Queue: 2 jobs
Job 1
Amino acid sequence: MKFFIDTANLDQIKEAQELGVLDGVTTNPSLMAKEGITGRNNILKHYVDICNIVDGDVSAEVIATDFEGMIKEGEELAELHEQIVVKIPMTKDGIKACKYFTDRDIKTNVTLVFSAGQALLAAKAGATYVSPFIGRLDDISTDGLNLIDEIRQIYDNYAFETEILAASVRHTMHIVNCAKIGADVMTGPLSAITGLLKHPLTDSGLAQFIADYQKGNQ
Ligand code: G3P
């Protein structure tokens, strides 16, 4: 399972990269705004800065909602750096744009996916990644993990190569459950990734080992 971090915060991206388990980064317009990155040139520069920190794929989202606009923006993003994946919304024009980029060997991430049917269309258009938002489904009392399960079944039935990128991951159990279902990738906050480190028995066991060592080596 690949681990992506879902942020535009360079310090957090560095921290995850230094942990040695990071496979990529996802961003979106809200995450860029949260970091105060505004203006086209600053946004483009920020994507390059992210690519220079991590080794893997970096999703950069188009703002345009029409086909021509997405193509223009997506091509500009893809030219920034070889690690850039063009992130496209799950709309009619988005699917057309996805197919356009697939035909030109440009990686894509179809985002804002909330149903198995949408995921099927994204795979048909050759998306590199499909991003079902599990946390936002949970928010409206729907089982986000069930969607990952459905997409896994559909993609396996037809050996689609599109990778299931579980997005809107909020906590460690989302990660563990996505791994059990077989999501190819998860993207979440640093807190969800580092949360995987924690167990009280690890802490108490380590404290005991250190205490016993000190008793015997006084
Ligand atoms: O990966 C998608 C993500 O950025 C959305 O997360 O927590 O805003 O639903 P959230």
Job 2
Amino acid sequence: MTQETAVLSAKPEMALESAAVRKVFVKTYGCQMNVYDSDRMTDALAKDGYVATDVMEDADLVLLNTCHIREKAAEKVYSALGRLRELKKKKAGEGREMMIGVAGCVAQAEGDEILRRAPAVDLVIGPQTYHRLPEALKRVKRGERVLETDYAIEDKFEHLPAPDKAKTRARGVTAFLTVQEGCDKFCTFCVVPYTRGSEVSRPVAQIVSEAQKLVDGGVREITLLGQNVNAWHGSGPNGEKWGLGELLHRLSEIEGLARLRYTTSHPRDMDDSLIAAHRDLPQLMPYLHLPIQSGSNRILKAMNRRHTTAEYIALIARIKAARPDLALSGDFIVGFPGETDEDFADTLSLVETVGYAQAFSFKYSTRPGTPGADLEDQVPEDVKANRLERLQALLLKQQHAFAEQCVGKTIDLLLEKPGRMPGQLIGRSPWLQSVNVDAKSSQIGDIIRVRITGTGPNSLFAEVVS
Ligand code: SAH
Ligand code: SF4
Ligand code: F3S
């Protein structure tokens, strides 16, 4: 007799409760880490009979997995909560209960304020305590408003269920896997060290076992995640020190795992073995997200980035020497306090020097509690807007140039999902571009040879090479 049936026969009323289907609607904001966490929370709730729904109105539980990185991101949460309050009221009028939970980085940063400003919220849960979610919901059911935002001492990953085969299959042939969480870098603009806590690396065995499970569920490409993913460190089988390079080697031994990526990296944590992995592992895709934030050394210093533009450029040269077809992506902030026209011109010229395949850029957003918020010389909004527009125009030009330069090339394409037209699939290039190609849906998960024939606004077109 399994443990489950033992429980069933002992407590029939509990069996009834756990058999009832409840629906959870999860809305995810922010970075890939939140995407990963949302799936883990959904998996944890499945044990209590929750199934995921895409229809908010049907949900017994609505979870907002929030982002605190810029003011706008945080504001979105409060306006969503305003709408949810109305829905909760409407459903209560129909005799249906709906619980509202706020997770993620806003929960961590402003938990008390959320409970004060939004009386409809039943539960606030920070990223370090997701494994306590089922228990927290039980407390809500007993009438409590729950705040779980301490930096948990237990390892949440030990307790959160790894993705099972069926769910993995439903989620597709590419997957995220968090290997590291938190940040000790304290860039002066950034909330992450406060919302995600200090750097923690998951142990090798846990990561390998989760990767194997993903592959068993049909995943062909895994992106390792961390706020500073290349700060990951662990121990090998004989207790030797491992960095991300060694971990990638280990993961590349998993049969059927065709592609590996990792994001986001900090330039200071790119060590020799990680660079060598780009040379030695064909599974490791030639695409690297390596943010620098600014092209001005003065601003980099004020940001506490602890690297210079020259070091960054030299680093890229070393990685490209190891993997010549490597393409780069990055993040930029314009209008950090004290940024002058010359500083901004330095950013443009760095972008010209490096040449990005793709990049994200943002106006500096003052975040309460970070050292940047107290700096004088905040840059006026219109100056920030103008700089952002100029930077984005240059980055977009580079993105298009990179796409154009792919035309005529024969590449490997991982077929990922149905395309917009019947008979078409969308695949992923080694450089993370979406590529449209004629193929059968039974081929999803295959890697095929295609020739790039043209470019569209956000994707490429290709034909199969026989
Ligand atoms: N750990 C990563 C990225 C974290 S946040 C790294 O170190 O690069 C993602 C991006 O958001 C950052 O790279 C930065 O460009 C941007 N960002 C962070 N804080 C910001 C702020 N206060 N204002 C504007 N952009 C910000
Ligand atoms: Fe934020 Fe800097 Fe840490 Fe990245 S390295 S998460 S930008 S503090
Ligand atoms: Fe946002 Fe938190 Fe990610 S602030 S970017 S959700 S780490």
